[in-house]
Amino acid sequence: MAEALYQLNNLSKRYTRGKESITIFSDLTMTIDKGDFIAIMGPSGSGKTTLLNQLGGIDSSSSGEVLFEGSRIDNLSQSRLAKWRAANVGFIFQFYNLMPTLTAAQNVELPLLLTNLSGKERKRRVATALGIVKIADRSGHRPRQLSGGQQQRVAIARAIVADPKVLLCDEPTGDLDRTTADEVLQTLQLLNNELGKTIVMVTHDPSAAKYARRELHLDKGRFLEAEAELA
Amino acid sequence: MNDATLIRKSLFRNKTRAILLVLSIMTAFLIFSVLGAFSRALNSGVETAAADRLVTLNAINFTLTMPYAYWGRVDQVEGVQAVTHASWFGGYYQEPRNFVQSFAVDMESYFQVYPELVPIEGDMETLLARNDCAAIGQDLLQQYEWTPGQRIPLTSNIWSKPDGSRVWDVELCLVFDAEDQDVPTNYMMLQYDYYNESLAFNRDQIGWMILTTGDPAINDQVGRDIDALFTNSPAETETSTEAAFGQAFLEQLGNIGLILTLVIGAAFATILMIVGTTMVMAINERTKEVAVMKTLGFSPPRIFTHVLSESVLLSLLGGLIGLGLAALLLVGVSGALAGQFPGLRMTPTIIGQAVALMILFGLVTGLLPAINAMRTNIVTALGKD
Amino acid sequence: MLKQIGAVTMINLRSIPQRWGMSLATVLSVALVVGVLLGFLAMANGFRATVDGSGADDVAVFLRAGSQAELNSGLGRDSVRLIEAGPGIAADAAGDPVLSAELYVIVDGIKRSSGTEANLPLRGVGPDASALREGFTMIEGRMFAPGSSELVVGEGVIRQFEGFDMGQTVRLGSNEWRVVGVFSTGGSVFDSEIWADVGTIQNLYQRTGTVQSVRARLTSPEALAGLQAYVADEPRLDLDVTSEREFFASSAGGTSDIIMFLGWPLAVIMAIGALAGAWNAMYASVDARTREIATLRAIGFSGFPAFVGTMVESLMLAAIGGLLGAGATYLIFDGVSASTLGGGFTQIVFSFAVTPTALVSGVVLALIVGAAGGFFPAIRAARVPILKAQG
């Protein structure tokens, strides 16, 4: 029996816009095991990104609990959450979100500024991360000098450099062409298979979802499960 | 890379903007430093006044003279350590516009009362050897590029000799200077006898007396005793401390302090608005990046500190350049203005005040942007276009 | 083309509220710069106006040669008699020359504003003194009686100093005087003076027989030359003769110049600071509207309207700031009374004068800041590339 990394209990999220109350999802209960690679799919407005945000502690819920390794994270303060994120989570966004004024290597180094590692040690880790995503030769380039796929790889390197337990990906291949997308997804698989990273990936692309171990469909705030084969 | 690098890069993200802001801040601190130096130089007369030195003037006004005989009588007053006298000569060199600040004094007692004046060329012996020997301050000597031992014709625009001439020939027998840069050395003294003996009118009068008491605690008593000597005489006296006299003179110029404060205040209000609004705008531009930093795990307090550090760095950058320029400027003009503003220069106090102000300014302009950044809602910001 | 320019300019101006923070900062910073400049100009002009207005062309002033200031000068009784006999001096109804031999000493008065002591001139005058000051009127009381210890004071003295009100007894030095009248000369230097009988002053201050200056009314301004020649030819007279206007012109210059020497550089440096601010604000303005401008270009507008639009925006903000600063300075400072040390070591009371010329200088400075600040951003606006179809 795989160990549970995340446990969501009766999670609900509602927005009030003026007089209207919009429910994104209610009473969501699910478990994410360590080493899992889940693809969450669904039409736009289904709440998949919101769910991802809950997992990453960057959005709060209206009710319910989010447990990470057995302890609640939904009731932590902003500062505590920041600390928790730094130690445990790596984010990967659709539009990369790299710092335009920093080089690739400096971007990857950013999460390490939150640790107590020495400059030397930081450089070593950055090199390792860049090596894993195979973009070491471009470490001195700024984001605007890199292609979409290259930027995403730098973003992945940034996401793994602090050795987090989970990678949360929001449409990671949404802005890439087919070939580049495949490369990125293969990297994610590698991280899951060989380095044991738990990955939760939100996507609307069925072929991307195929790279995951499990597919979950979210529609109007509810799950419809479907098993996917191992890629 | 470290936090410092991050801050630096954020600041110079938009080079043009950073340069323009630095320029703005620089002008404000330039004004602050230069005006501060002028203000200090103006007040230096009061600062360098010796605590135990008193000045006795004609009670009606310092432009009126007193009988020479008063000098001997004041010397007898208990508590008076040493007393000298001085009279305004109203001198110029060759042409009226070549103003030379000059007095007729009793040399020996003068240097006793002003021990901070030290001979650097010649000595008291050579000075007193001849009647027409004069003592000249280093600044004045340099201003007119005279040499020690040179003979100069000094013309008075007030006094004249019986033959109608108003020129006294003097030799620059002694040059004096002071260790403290703020003590003025932009004047010269002739010997009283040499001046008095050849006066066509107003003989045996002196302008004012300066004396030391040796102990500030007895200043008041000695002052009163002196003035008591001359009550109900045609020339009543008023004795006050050197500092009080200097202060009173400054106040005649008007409320300089207020003017300076207003101008400096205006300069800072200007840049406060400019830099403040720009910083707020600049941080707003980066709201998505701030959100990403938060997702990476940078805590709100840390982000707050980053932004605040940016604005303090900006302020220090502009301020230090302004301070440096001010120092250069002051060095440039201090020679030319040594007459009215002795000791005009940059001092550690001004530098300290300026730096403190830079930091304060940085904190004030950075506060609102830092709060905004700290409070960025990750989800909303990430969702922005 | 004109229509294009008009359209773009309107878009620019309408968008100012969107960037109200920086626009306001620009306006206010220009206002402050103009305010500082005009403040100094008002001081200098006010001071100069008081002193300039004090000199008459048809009054000659006699001083001992080379003394340059009344305080330094000294003339004996004989000299005065010789002067009385000079050509070109106007005569009164009785046929006597209209002149006043004067002697002044400095006394201390307490300034109302600071409570501290400051120098005041106590001028001993002859009976014709009032006739020799243009615009002289007694606004309260009467003239002092000859030989008495009575005083009349100028209205500037009452404004700035304590203790000289009508009827008050004043102690100057060891002597007591009574104020019997207040006079006005319409804002000239003499309003800052206290007058008494010259004979009384001579006695009390032990100057029997000497005066410092003689003022005489000329039959016409041109008569001065003749009088100067007379004095030059007379070996017993060693005097400088100038018109009163010239006499004051030379003494006022100093203080006025110092004020301007400080004021202009200060204003210029502040203007540079405001300039950087305006420049910055304009760049932000252009950047914010890059998309709009690009779209307009795609429609067919050329770059020039964008240039003009930005320049107009910049000039307008600066102009508003300039007018604001000028208006505020005028309201706050014009007419404010002040006094400072004049040439003769006495206080000269003057009023800040915000003149039309000064106002113009202020607005011009504002416009220069606006133009310089908007120039490069305007060029950037003109160079915005045409919006391309997005891939």
- What's the main sheet of chain B like? 12 strands, mixed
Order of helices and strands of chain A: EEEHEEHEHHHEHEHEE
Report, as a whole number of angstroms, the end-to-end distance of chain A. Answer: 22 Å
The number of helical runs of chain A is 7
CATH architecture grouping of chain A: 3-Layer(aba) Sandwich
Strand order of the largest sheet of chain A: 6-7-8-3-9-10
Task: Describe the fold and architecture.
The complex is a heterotrimer of chains A (231), B (385) and C (391). Chain A has a single domain, classed as Rossmann fold (3-Layer(aba) Sandwich), CATH 3.40.50. Helix content of chain A is 31%, strand content 29%. Chain A has helices at residues 48-55, 78-88, 104-109, 119-132, 148-160, 178-193, 206-209, and strands at 4-17, 20-33, 37-41, 63-68, 71-72, 89-92, 166-170, 198-202, 214-219, 222-227. In chain A, the strands form two sheets. Chain A has a six-stranded mixed beta sheet, with helices on both faces. Chain A has a four-stranded antiparallel beta sheet with strand order 2-1-4-5, with helices on one face. In chain A, helix 4 (119-132) packs across helix 5. The model of chain A is unreliable at 227-231 (pLDDT under 50). Chain B has helices spanning 3-11, 15-47, 69-75, 107-113, 124-129, 138-144, 192-197, 219-229, 242-252, 256-285, 287-296, 300-334, 348-374, 378-382; strands spanning 53-58, 66-67, 82-88, 91-92, 99-100, 102-105, 117-121, 133-137, 151-156, 167-178, 188-191, 205-206, 208-212, 237-241. In chain B, strands 1, 3, 4, 5, 6, 7, 8, 9, 10, 11, 13 and 14 form a twelve-stranded mixed beta sheet that branches. By secondary structure, chain B is an alpha+beta fold. Chain B folds into two domains: 3-46 and 255-383, no CATH class; 66-234, no CATH class. By secondary structure, chain C is an alpha+beta fold. In chain C, strands 1, 3, 4, 5, 6, 7, 8, 9, 11 and 12 form a ten-stranded mixed beta sheet that branches. A two-stranded antiparallel sheet of chain C has the order 2-10. A two-stranded antiparallel ribbon of chain C has the order 13-14. In chain C, a hairpin with a 6-residue loop joins strand 3 (99-110) and strand 4. In chain C, helix 2 (20-52) packs antiparallel against helix 10 (356-382) and helix 7 crosses helix 9. Chains in contact: A-B, B-C. The interface between B and C is large, with 49 and 56 residues.
